[in-house]
Amino acid sequence: MTLLQIDWFFAAEKLILIAAVITGALIIAMYSTYAERKVAAVIQDRRGPNRAGPFGLLQPLADGLKLFFKEEIIPTHANKLLFVLGPSLAMLTAMMTSAVIPWGSKLELFGRTIELQIADINIGILYVFGVVSLGVYGILIGAWSSNNKFSLLGGLRGASQIISYELAMGISLIALLMVTGTLSLKEMVEQQQNGHWNIVKQPLGFLIFLVCAFAECNRTPFDLPESENELNCGYHGEYSSMKLGFYLFAEYINMFISGAIMASLYFGGYDIPFINEATLSVNTAAGLGAVALLVKTTLFIFLFMWVRWTIPRFRYDQLMRLGWKTLIPLSLLNMFITGALILWRSKSN
Predict the structure, then answer these.
(1) Which residues lie below 8 Å from residue 79, measured CB to CB, with a gap of 6+?
(2) What Cα–Cα distance (Å) separates residue 4 from each residue in 9, 10, 14?
(3) Is 265 within the bounds of a domain?
(4) Contact (CB, 8 A) for 21 and 118
(5) DSSP secondary structure, 40-51, as one string
(6) What SS3 state is found at 113?
(7) Rg of the chain over CA atoms, in angstroms?
(8) Is residue 54 part of a domain?
(9) Per-residue DSSP letter, 315
(10) H or E element that contains 271
(11) Which residues of the chain carry a pLDDT beneath 50?
(12) Domain annotation covers residue 307
């Protein structure tokens, strides 16, 4: 087998994995809309969607078809190119963050070892932060190009919110990087095998990261960029048809990816608690590990939904105060304590 043939096989493996991740993310995002309405219904003592298909399971398909066939309206005074680019960029950045997440250990098929990760780069966390930082441009571009004052206010809120909470999130991750000694998500997950999860070492860091993840995803109580009762849906107020669908889908995909990242960073990723994967076959361990990661991610998605329907939205000054006066000092304190403990242990040894 020549090197050229091996490259073609490698490219085919990665393309299949990319297609599987994108398809899975879209299906999960689609049925997250159904799950959110059901969770809200249970909390509010209602039934939720129950007309389209058995138990309402076809409701996401009905909603998707509705968005596809709705009339597409572009405001007369909008910048048409940027108006289309905004939701496209939001969707693109939401999907790109999945590239460095290890979805399982490895498969052995047809004499080849296939890693269940699209790209194993040694700066995976920096890649995630870089792509997440680009996501705000999708909000800003869509808000500004709409030529609507309420949309612009929503876009400005979203930009200032994401900048504020990325600081605390980044500092909380510095403490985790001091413990693990690597920026690679794959290596972080491998260090947590057999139950040595980072949540035990960094409980405060995880709590800060979780709160910042809510803000990064624009989820209640941090959904100030949308604020339906204040800004008439905010940055996507002028959007309709599938452009609106892209913004809505991007939010649910961000929830899914955020859950997978938190599961990988703090809860062992594809590690299965109370089971020694070494006693299983390679393919069985990979399959069960992928299921374990999806279960952990699903629990985080449920948490996102639960919080949305239980906690009211913050005022804007409260949101900024929490980010700058509470989370950033806490993350700095967590980083200093972690550094002091590492230094003390190194001197003790």
Answers:
(1) 144, 145, 147
(2) 9, 10, 15
(3) yes
(4) yes
(5) HHHHTT-----S
(6) strand
(7) 21
(8) no
(9) P
(10) none
(11) 1-5
(12) yes
- What is the phi/psi pair of residue 134, to 5°? -70, -25
Q: What pLDDT shows up at residue 328? A: 93
Residues in the chain: 349
How many other C-beta atoms can be found within 10 angstroms of the C-beta atom of residue 140? Answer: 22
Please give the single-letter amino acid code of residue 36: E
Residue 174 is predicted with a pLDDT of 92
First to last CA, the chain: 50
* Class of residue 303 by CB neighbours under 10 A (exposed 0-12, middle 13-18, buried 19+): middle
Q: Report how many domains make up the chain.
A: 1
pLDDT of residue 145: 85
Residue 182: inside a domain: yes
- Position 330 scores a pLDDT of 94
Q: State the helix-helix crossing angle for 241-266 and 282-308, rounded to 10 degrees.
A: 120
Question: What tokens appear for 318 in the block?
Answer: 């409260």
The structure tokens listed for 332 are: 């700095």
Neighbouring residues of 55: CB distance < 8 A, sequence distance ≥ 6: none
Number of H helices, E strands in the chain: 13, 2
Q: What is the per-residue pLDDT for 329? A: 94
- The amino acid sitting at 71 is E
Kindly write down the DSSP assignment for every residue of 55-71, as one continuous string. GGTTHHHHHHHHHHHSP
Structural domain boundaries enclosing 74: 3-46+60-348
Two structure tokens written together for 198: 């980072």
Measured CA to CA, the distance from residue 215 to residue 222 in angstroms comes to 5
Whether the pTM exceeds 0.85: the reply is: yes
